[in-house]
UniProtKB/TrEMBL annotation:
NCBIfam families membership: hydantase, PRK09290.1-5
Entries under InterPro entries matching the protein: Amidase_Cbmase (IPR010158), ArgE/DapE_CS (IPR001261), Bact_exopeptidase_dim_dom (IPR036264), Peptidase_M20 (IPR002933), Peptidase_M20_dimer (IPR011650)
Organism ancestry: Bacteria, Bacillati, Bacillota, Bacilli, Bacillales
Name of the featured protein: M20 family metallo-hydrolase
Organism whose genome encodes this protein: Gracilibacillus salinarum
Domain Peptidase M20 dimerisation: 218-309
Length: 421
């Protein structure tokens, strides 16, 4: 293993000790484990001579000054939090890649013209609060106080309350916003979380755009009753009604497969939750994703229509609330060309395709020209302890990231702009 690969592996291992369990890595948003990973990130960046800032929601920003201190920064980064049974690469690979680029710049004694930043975003995963990319939403002015109060975890703790536990006041959320004059560009390296690179035996992909989620919270209200004395004809079973609706959600998504739209029910709670009680209430959450907004909205409307039909046939009440409706994002063409040119110079043969998963890059595009690099995921597995990306593939991604950071952060780029916006 090459020295840089050993360094990348060692750094990943240091992060993945944090939150390691038999069920996978668990660094859940706004918990001690996420905080510990952020502290480690800040420590490692300080060792490289970087200045550290923690913004109003907990994003950690490490800055390496350039010759022009007032110039906008070229930023790289990703997130350190995980899902409940996470793998060892999702998110953290991009943070470690940013750190590796800075280490290389320091070793080569290169001083860029523009500042270079590494951003470790907080709370990218939606596992806890049902809302994704919270840190980058705040940084780009897309997180409201109302959302932070409304979004709650499975224990009823709101996002605002969880933030307060770590001394972040949601009333100050706008202080996290970065202006378009602060950031020149943003690059995110991420594992693909899909099988395309491995299927084509390729090592690098450049994303053209990012699919966005529409998320629903569905509440089914029936009537709790004794399971032994309530006849089948007299039941208002919320679980049966909810199950009928879930089966139809799969059907609606399958009918939109031409647009590659997908729908998932990943949270399902039954009340009161006793073996001898007919379920009286059910709450479940739906994640609908795709690049075609009309396709996503057709699924939402069909879910609402089906909910009315189930209400009528089952004698229950169903409430369908939209808790998030994000728009698909097209990433900057100029940055994509910089990435493609760098691939050519490095002898890489990249794939080019859109991302089906959401990433912090989707929010950053609204503030500065943004690019997204993918490295392979073995068997396309992610959000799972079996998630695996070879260190040599991450190192190749770092090679590309380093070359592009250098290209974007030098003065000549001002006069020969390859980025739009």
């Amino acid at each position: 293993m090459k020295r840089t690969e050993k360094r990348i592996q060692s750094t990943l291992d240091a992060f993945n000790v944090i939150g390691e369990t038999e069920e996978g890595i668990q660094r859940i948003a706004y918990t001690h484990n996420e905080k510990e990973a952020q502290v480690l990130f800040a420590y490692l960046c300080k060792k490289e001579g970087m200045d550290i800032k923690v913004d109003a929601v907990g994003n950690v920003i490490a800055r390496r000054e350039g010759r022009f201190r007032s110039a906008p920064a070229v930023a790289v980064g990703s997130h350190v939090d995980t899902v409940y049974t996470g793998g060892r690469f999702d998110g953290i690979a991009g943070v470690v890649a940013g750190l590796e680029v800075v280490r290389r710049l320091n070793e080569k004694n290169i001083r860029t013209d523009y500042p270079v930043e590494i951003i470790a975003f907080t709370s990218e995963e939606s596992s806890r609060f049902g809302m994704s990319t919270i840190g980058s939403k705040a940084m780009t002015g897309k997180l409201s106080i109302e959302q932070a109060v409304k979004q709650k975890d499975k224990d009823g703790v709101s996002l605002a309350e969880a933030m307060k536990h770590y001394n972040f006041d949601i009333a100050n959320v706008n202080e996290a916003i970065r202006s378009k004059t602060e950031l020149h560009s943003f690059l995110e390296l991420h594992i693909e979380q899909g099988p395309e690179l491995e299927k084509q035996n390729k090592k690098i992909a450049i994303a053209t755009g990012i699919a966005a989620p529409t998320r629903l919270c569905v509440n089914v209200k029936g009537m709790a009753a004794h399971s032994g004395t309530t006849s089948m004809a007299n039941r208002k079973d919320a679980l049966i009604a909810a199950s009928q609706l879930v089966i139809m959600i799969e059907k609606f998504a399958q009918e939109e497969s031409l647009h590659k739209t997908v729908a998932t029910v990943g949270v399902f709670e039954v009340f009161p939750g006793a073996m001898n009680v007919v379920p009286g209430d059910v709450e479940f959450k739906v994640d609908i994703r795709g690049l075609n907004t009309a396709s996503k909205h057709r699924i939402v409307e069909r879910i609402k229509e089906e909910a009315r039909a189930v209400e009528s046939s089952r004698g229950v009440d169903i409430e369908v609330d939209i808790i998030g409706d994000e728009q698909p994002v097209l990433l900057d063409e100029g940055i994509r060309q910089v990435l493609l040119d760098a691939c050519k110079d490095l002898g890489m043969d990249p794939m080019v395709f859109p991302s089906g998963a959401g990433h912090d890059a989707m929010n950053m595009q609204s503030v500065c020209p943004t690019g997204l690099i993918f490295v392979p995921s073995h068997n396309g597995i992610s959000h799972n302890p079996e998630e695996f990306t070879a260190i040599e593939d991450i190192a190749l991604g770092c090679d590309l990231l380093e070359k592009c950071v250098l290209e974007l952060s030098m003065e000549r780029e001002i006069n020969n702009a390859k980025t739009s916006g």
